[in-house]
Design a protein that fits this description.
4 copies of one chain form a homotetramer. Chain A is an alpha/beta fold and 351 residues long. The first copy, chain A, is built from 11 helices and 13 strands. Chain A folds into 2 domains: 126 residues, Rossmann fold; 165 residues, 2-Layer Sandwich (Dihydrodipicolinate Reductase, domain 2). Helix content of chain A is 29%, strand content 22%. In chain A, helix 1 crosses helix 11, helix 6 crosses helix 11 and helix 7 packs parallel to helix 9. The longest helix of chain A has 15 residues. Chain A starts with a strand and ends in a 17-residue tail after the last helix. At the B-C interface, strand 7, strand 8, strand 9, strand 10 and strand 12 of B face strand 7, strand 8, strand 9, strand 10 and strand 12 of C.
């Protein structure tokens, strides 16, 4: 028996990736894929790679009444600020929601003013919303009506830091997270900065002070550590289309070796279906190169005891574990399915 | 019930792609993956993307006796000149063979002297071998003991040309095939020409007179057309890792329009599970960009009646429809399985 | 003593490249760089690479009266259809013009209707205009008031074909030109097709029937050969930012070997300052990889006597020999300077 | 009058870049370019981009006696450990040396044991050697016989940090330097890790604990600050061929704003011919994209007073300001020439 899901905002990259996954998911049926811009057009006229595989599926106009009458679960893949006005209606109709936008990630309403520049329109729901990182909130996701899927840079940053932060191995006052990410993160809308001649071959810092994902990284680490944690975070655009790597530069609270750090990762991630701990081999540290197309997150680390420091790494495919893949993982948990269902893709490599 | 298959030469890119597909194939079990260089090492120490997904599978030494006692079908992913010395032994033990090397592609023994510079060691088997292009030889593949999988540039060239050539629409004395292909085609062995700083951003013709795939393209087109066909073929290395596009420049035998050409494609490919005919949309012609990770071949064309010419296109992922994916497709046919089994991957895009 | 030049339309890639060259040219002073969109802004706010090297140069509004009073030579780097309305005024004021747009490339007015879809507004000037390819029209350029700089794909196509066409070595009824070109060719204006995630890693045919550069290629080859020549030409977008390669697939009029073809190139290009004939070495054929940043055009060829065919290659940097570099070369000729002045850049490699 | 220079080890990328610059330098003549591997072969058979521009220059065997009799200044572009055995002989003959290897960068002999694993063979010369970063050691370079050119990652790291470190603006106990660098840094020798399919599209940390450039960064910062400074440094290979960006994550000693930090940069770099301070514009921070082919270093920064932190950036072309370009800059200083002579290249962009 199939679960009926709808995707609101299906013409972007995250929506397209959700379609790629859900159209092939054995327990799910996509009953609607909406797009304001492309309503009425075949999905494959926008997502050219999906030509012939979606039958005659067309984008539809967003019609919440129709969606709540047809679906049981809704993916919201809409710009920041949009889903806060939709979620209550969907939940009240008895559906469950996976929000891929930032609107329900932060628990404190005032943070939306600080980081996003708007007053949240439905602050009560923030208390109910669950941050959709299964490695940290699996049990809450199982019971959630509303799951707020993490940002891709935040996913990588948190997964790199969580085990050692939680175990008290690092100086929480000096945490620097340096992220490198491909161009698909910025979405499907062209502008001067994403024009190919301008965007190819960049190594370009952006939002070097005030990147919005900082808010959720700090929220989750503070929660894990039971104290306020602040991070220095700088994302960098690099020439890739897909892939993100977070490098956390940390100082250690004690003289530690690699084994202690490894144990922290093994303890927290040893049974995680989508986390692979990289420790040796010809490429010793995580690299998104080996993850493309899959929902894996590779984590790894380097410890330099003589300098009392370590580097912690997490590599993801930003459209998979950083967006649509993680949403499907959360959906599987919510629906009581095998967490891996419909996500059984080995990475495509070399690519 | 699983079919037991072995992969000889599993450490290269084609072998790795075969492993990616077969390890996830519902009706197949990989009983051996051999590698002279890496025997005894975990498969995931070479194919880093397959970390954690193959359990503890290790490369083994090539031991034909062991393989014929354990497997029922063997993939040979070995360099040119090697499989001709192995196939007879495997067939005699009652197994079936998918040879990914060029050793059994050409029917006339003297062509190996002309194009490959060696005297074939088992010319009798050439008569039995079937050229593994399902769109042309499906029925013969079904009954074959020995299938010779086409080269990637040849696959693209033949699939672009076959319908119009067979239908007599083009001047067979003036066929120019211009191929562009990514770096993974050249395999896993590094050399000066594949060193990243040298190979990145190239637009580089190679084997501009005498490319070996010409032999199989001419063989298959001649067979289809019932006369000797010769092609002018120039492959070009471009900066991609994956993907190949064949552009065939042809002149028409009559005043034709797009519809006539389209009908030829529709007639021959209309029911093909892995061929998509591209005719319209924001990107009007095939581009391997929209195929990566999948077994699709996108074909398309442009007709210029005023100049009596046309351009015919075929785009593939060179490691999939150009190598391992096509081999799995052939295997499915040989084993009486659904042709799409284990190949149900939608392309990863954008990437 | 410096020659005073103005650049109309200096904010695009061709304009930026012209600025890079002219600002460093020992005999030239840039007196105006106009841009409708960026008038009043520093040039370096658009051309970020030129930060600090142009002093405080600002873009100005286009004011033809001011330009004719200050400059002696004008570069027009404007969209198709614009310069035809400006040139007469500039010439009448006694200035000379290098038009980088297509408006004065074709000699027959009706071709503008056929290929560009407009009726030319100043057809008389077409007769006077000189096609700015020094290797063919050097003497006429010297005396010209109006030089129409060739398109980049046309430059590569003509330079690959001219010597063998002129010498009567090829069948002029079957000439196929397959061009591969980087993204900077399409200019500075972003759209969906040039959005980095969409444009990266493409191997994408475009204008496969009816590419506008066909008109000028046919014009120049017809002129050279004294008969009407038609070409089958298909440009392909590839993942590079810079660089273009033309591959001409031709059939030979006689049994020829490499030496005959080489002699044709040597005869026509032996003394050309910017053409290098590539014949041997680890990379046997031209590749734009080794030309980036310079005004060189590398030509080369492969001959297959047994099939009576050859492939002819020309590689350029599309913004240099394909646009601004060639314009500066023409300017040097017009001004009686050393043809190499201000163009003494060795290619940047590897890049 | 030309200065006679020799390049020892001219077949690598740094040697090739030195040749590109010196062959075009108005005050220099290259009297020898040595290569063990390619002795006797034309330089252009290895450096294909230099075809036709170096006349018939051939690589020669290394013959120190011949070199000291012909040249007055020698570039050593040899692997680590080699130049320590050559320099004394060259200096004693009265020549001056620019060593591009790490052999004379560190002042304390024991650091070679710690970081490079060898006992230095000429420790006395370490005292005399000058670290070839003109922005810090210009006056000493002027009088030096032996200049040790910095590593490329070290150049970017030091130039990003020097002004704020020297001015006491940052917590010197928590300095993390995250470097991203293109593939040309690793040199011309192919191996598995640099094979194009493996190296393309990587975001790959390497030497995450113990990168050798740490030693020179710490040496120079300690010297500048008058106390021992230690840095946490992680280089990352990214998909570019050229370009390096250093991002230094630092914490501030006081509540600072952007202006204070800007003043430190302006004070130290305001008159530097090759440093550009990036502070505004459509791309607000340095990006090597806008530097390729030139000797510029773009520096910039982001200050987040609320978190007491800043990010400091420096972008270079690793073969120019990170290697050969910086060596030519040092040479100009040593020879009393204009520091910009032969380095007057504007960046090539877009590329």
């Amino acid at each position: 028996m199939s679960h009926r899901v709808a995707i609101v905002g299906a013409s972007g990259y995250t929506g397209g990736e959700a379609l790629r996954l859900l159209a092939n998911h054995p327990s799910v049926e996509v009953v609607a894929a909406t797009s304001r811009e492309y309503a009425g057009k075949p999905v494959s006229a926008v997502h050219l790679h999906l030509r012939s595989v979606l039958g005659s599926m067309k984008f539809s106009e967003l019609n919440l009444e129709k969606i709540v009458s047809e679906a049981e679960l809704v993916y919201l893949s809409v710009p920041s600020g949009v889903s806060q006005g939709m979620v209550r209606r969907i939940l009240e109709a008895g559906l469950r929601v996976l929000d891929l936008s930032p609107d329900f990630r932060l628990k404190e309403p005032r943070l939306y003013e600080e980081w996003y520049g708007f007053t949240h329109r439905d602050p009560e729901l923030l208390a109910e919303s669950i941050y959709g990182l299964p490695e940290i909130h699996r049990e809450e996701i199982r019971r959630a009506r509303l799951v707020a899927c993490p940002g891709c840079n935040a996913t990588a940053a948190i997964l790199a830091l969580a085990p050692v932060a939680r175990e008290g191995l690092i100086d929480l006052d000096h945490v620097a997270v340096d992220v490198k990410v491909g161009s698909s993160e910025a979405g499907r809308q062209p502008d001067q900065g994403t024009h190919h001649p301008e965007r190819a071959n960049v190594i370009r810092p952006y939002e070097a002070a005030g990147h919005r994902h900082v808010a959720e990284v700090e929220q989750e680490l503070s929660l894990l550590c039971g104290r306020r944690v602040r991070v220095a975070m700088v994302p960098h655009a690099v020439g890739n289309v897909r892939g993100a790597l977070a490098t956390a530069h940390v100082w250690l609270t004690d003289t530690l070796d690699e084994t202690t750090v490894w144990r922290a990762y093994a303890k927290h991630y040893g049974r995680e279906p989508f986390i692979r701990i990289v420790r040796a081999g010809p490429v010793k540290y995580p690299d998104p190169k080996y993850i493309i197309g899959s929902n894996f997150c590779d984590v790894g680390f380097a410890v330099e005891p003589s300098r009392g420091r370590a580097a912690l790494f997490a590599a993801i495919d930003n459209l998979m574990k950083g967006a649509a893949g993680q949403a499907v993982q959360c959906m599987n948990i919510m629906l009581g399915l095998d967490e891996r269902e419909g996500l059984n893709y080995f990475p495509v490599s070399p690519v």
